[in-house]
Amino acid sequence: MMYLTALNLKNTLGFGTLRHVHIPLFNINIPDCDLHGMIGLHDRNSTNGQLRGEFPIGGYNKAIQQCDASFLALEGFYQNVNNFPDRNTFDYDREFPALSDVNDHGGEDDLVINIRGGDILKAIHPHYTQLPPEFYEALIARTGKHPIFYGQLDPSPYLEELRQRFPNATFISSRGVERDFDFIRKSHYIVPALSTFSWLATWLSNAKKIFFPVAGIFSPMQHPSAMLLPFNDKRYEFFTFPIYFARNIQEYREYMDPIRNLWEYTDTDTLREMCKSKERSLDAALNLFNANNYLNLYPEFTDLYQKFGATGLINHFCEAGFWEGRKPFFFDETSYSARYPMAALSVAQGHYRNMLDHYINIGHKMGYRAV
């Protein structure tokens, strides 16, 4: 996901070279480079996590033009579908070709249900949960397709319940990373497991239908440092689950039983509204950032500027200044509210956090003046 974000950034900028990428699954190996003595921009994990994994591509596109940074280091997880190149214009099959010549996958009459086991069964992360068998049961009844449970089928009380509940299903244990990824990716009807591996294999597929659980790490309400809901992809049907947390698989009934039948289908527009961020946009603020204004507003950063120039100020704004409510440029809210009373009313009605937020998100697009 970091690599996809970097590709999208490079395409947006129209220049730059990717470095330090290692993805053995697709034999992608781009060497690192020595950054010693260079001044660069750092998109920190702490910032990325507060933005639901989204990288402010537009903002950095503008910010880079007013500094002399030699590099931009991506240091987050970038688990946000908006970071990635458009599926309609980017050749994903060429960039990430099929991993094997084995034409092995779920066909037209199959429903491939990916199961994540392994160390997840020890509840190493609270958002990596198992899904209730009732969910699979309902999808099987709805589609009329033959279920194939595929993946890390480690012995556990949960797997035992699946085998008992679905005696006529096909169970295929993991056959290695490449075979697993390809099997999911080449299948026609898929229910992904709550894992980024499963998400990527599913998203890169040409599946006809994807039955997507909005739960655990896939739920922005539960896991707010990511946004992996492809709202604009018509292959997806979304099913919202209550927030629930993983426990050791020996105790899975204790978190599973209370939510077994509480999931429900959620249409895309409703889910989009549910997940709409109520926070200010760093991307929009960075897009209007002015290094000279920032230094004049906050002269305490003079030493930072003398050492690192505008690059240092941009780093500070992204890592701290934005979150502290510092202004990215000169802005007079008194004049703004008097000049644009409808904007002031919109802020009073709670549509924007403050006058600056209104200007950053919409005012400047309408030709409003900041001072």
Please tag this protein with its features.
two-stranded antiparallel ribbon, about 375 residues, 11 strands
Largest sheet descriptor: 7 strands, mixed
The shape, in one word, is globular
Q: What is the helix/strand order?
A: HEEEHHEHEHEHEHEHEEHEHHHHHHH
Biggest sheet: strands side by side, in what order? 7-6-5-8-9-10-11
Radius of gyration: 24 Å
Proportion of residues in extended strands: 5-15%
Unreliable spans are none
Number of helices: 16
Mean pLDDT: 92
Q: Please give the alpha-carbon distance between the first and last residues.
A: 40 Å
Record field, number of beta strands = 11
User: Roughly how much helix do the residues carry, as a percent range?
Assistant: 25-40%
Structural class: alpha/beta
Give the structure's gist in a few sentences.
The chain contains 16 helices and 11 strands. It is α/β, with parallel strands linked by helices and 371 residues long. It has a 7-stranded mixed sheet with strand order 7-6-5-8-9-10-11. Strands 1-2 form a two-stranded antiparallel sheet. The protein has a two-stranded parallel sheet with strand order 3-4.
